[in-house]
Amino acid sequence: MKVKELPPPIQERLREHRVTRGLRRQSRIFTDTTDFSRIDYGDIILVDDRYFLVVAYTREGRFGVDDQVKPWVPKVEDLESGEKYIVKLVFHETFDITLGPFTIPCYRNPEKEARVLELVRGHPHFMQGKAALDAAGNLVRILDIINGSRLDRVIHRGNLSHKEYFFTELPAILANYLPCVEGIGMLHDHGLRHGDIRRDHIFVERQTGLYRWIDFDYDFYLPEKPFALDLYELGNLLMYLAARGNYYIRDILADPSLGEEVAAAVDPGDYSLLSRNRIANLQKIFPYIPDSLNNIFLHFSLGTEVFYESVNELCADLGGALDQGWQ
Amino acid sequence: MNDWKNILIGVDNTPTSNQGVEYVARIAGGLPGVRMCLLHVYPEPPPDYYSGGGTLDSYRRDQEKKAAQLMKECDGILQRGGVNGKSISHEIRMADQKTISETILACQQEGGFGTLVVGRRGVSKAEEFLFGSISSALIHHAKQCTVWVVSQ
């Protein structure tokens, strides 16, 4: 399809668009997104009978690694409505993640993300969007953009000490986090996983303050414990929120307010079940953490005798801790 | 409680599984009225199986072919231990929308088995959390039967 074959109003919008005004070539129209690497800034993706102009690309970095462009995830503008979206094109990728001594096979699974989007339609704590097939049968996901900030950045705003943060800000943060955790439980009840629970995969919506999960296309293969990795990462994120960071022995030793005395009190059972050297028994570092909350962390420690079997158990304990509160 | 002489033996391609089969043969091989079912449960294909061009039918065929060989080997162990070949049956299942332990328990309930036997290789806490322990799951959730867990 050529630009001159587009409906006249779309042609006009394309002509006047800031992206194409600065473009030294004519936009191309892609109805088949199989080879997404050919699609470039200023091109149009035609899917779901809508004309999506590529206006930018999303980026993502693993922690400590610079953000990298994701060419299969362009930011687009619907040339009819003017609305902006993120479009995710099919990119099958298999890789291993390492957790402590274990290796877990992971996959990008567009079909799973489409099923999750369908299940969570209208749910306030999940990114919204829909899936549509392109002309070649690729499952393209058209995602609403969440106007807000990553949760891990939100909790680091301000200059509060940890103690001030813990007593003044954390209760509200966890009250917002709890329904997100319940949302993951709902996915599990329907046989689906989030697959990539990380601290930058919750966005805090600017207007409403709602916490919303993003990015559901990762999947993993744990046939006997299909939800264990989600559950573990929910616990990790909870500990990150409570401590406002991850704590390793080196962090304790480097902090003059903690130092060797605190480090010496850390027992082998206080470490995380799967993240080597990360401390799960955070009460040893922050003694004002109440038992009701710290006991949840201990379920994710090497010293635990009892694991959480389901997200619902975690929710019950977190809800209980929040109900008891801390002064 | 179901009849204990109706024995379900979970098997896979591991040395501990073979030890479980050998143990059953030693304990119950010569007893009259004993019926044994060798059960092999395999997981659903991994998520990238279909995108690589595989079909469920081809996956099942491949798994069942491997399981048939496994059954033959386990049959040999039981019969050498004195079990009458006529009292041995086979069941091969995919864990369809279930975990492997849930599938074993479903089979146990359907067949009215009074004894359930599995091998156990022993796993660390972390391994059990992440990958699960089938023997632990069976011990916790089995009903109307005795669970024999044969350790390394």
Structure description:
The complex is a heterodimer of chains A (327) and B (152). Chain A has helices spanning 8-16, 18-21, 110-119, 151-154, 162-189, 228-243, 249-254, 259-264, 291-298, 311-324; strands at residues 29-30, 44-47, 50-60, 68-78, 84-88, 94-99, 102-108, 129-133, 139-144, 148-150, 202-205, 211-213, 218-220. Chain A is an alpha+beta fold. Chain A folds into two domains: 1-88, no CATH class; 148-324, Transferase(Phosphotransferase) domain 1 (Transferase(Phosphotransferase), domain 1). In chain A, a hairpin with a 5-residue loop joins strand 4 and strand 5. In chain A, helix 5 (162-189) runs antiparallel to helix 6 and helix 5 packs antiparallel against helix 10. The mean pLDDT of chain A is 94. Chain B has a five-stranded parallel β-sheet, with helices on both faces. In chain B, helix 1 (15-28) packs across helix 2 (56-80). The radius of gyration of chain B is 16 Å and the shape is globular. Chain B has 152 residues and is an alpha/beta fold. The interface between A and B is medium-sized, with 27 and 22 residues.
Portion in helices of chain A: 25-40%
User: What is the N-to-C order of secondary-structure elements of chain A (H for helix, E for strand)?
Assistant: HHEEEEEEEHEEEHHEEEHHHHH
Rg of chain A to the nearest angstrom?
22 Å
Number of strands of chain B: 5
In CATH terms, the superfamily of chain B is HUPs
Label this structure with key terms.
heterodimer; A: 327 residues; alpha+beta; seven-stranded mixed β-sheet; three-stranded antiparallel β-sheet; 10 helices; 13 strands; 32% helix; B: 152 residues; Rossmann fold; five-stranded parallel β-sheet; 5 helices; 5 strands
Write the layout of secondary structure elements.
The complex is a heterodimer of chains A (327) and B (152).
Chain A lengths: L7 H9 L1 H4 L7 E2 L13 E4 L2 E11 L7 E11 L5 E5 L5 E6 L2 E7 L1 H10 L9 E5 L5 E6 L3 E3 H4 L7 H28 L12 E4 L5 E3 L4 E3 L7 H16 L5 H6 L4 H6 L26 H8 L12 H14 L3
Parallel strand pairs in A: 1-2
Antiparallel strand pairs in A: 2-3, 3-4, 4-5, 5-9, 6-7, 7-13, 8-9, 10-11, 11-12
Helix pairs in contact in A: 5-6, 5-10
Chain B lengths: L5 E5 L4 H14 L6 E8 L13 H25 L7 E7 L5 H12 L3 E6 L4 H7 L2 H8 L4 E6 L1
Helix pairs in contact in B: 1-2, 3-5
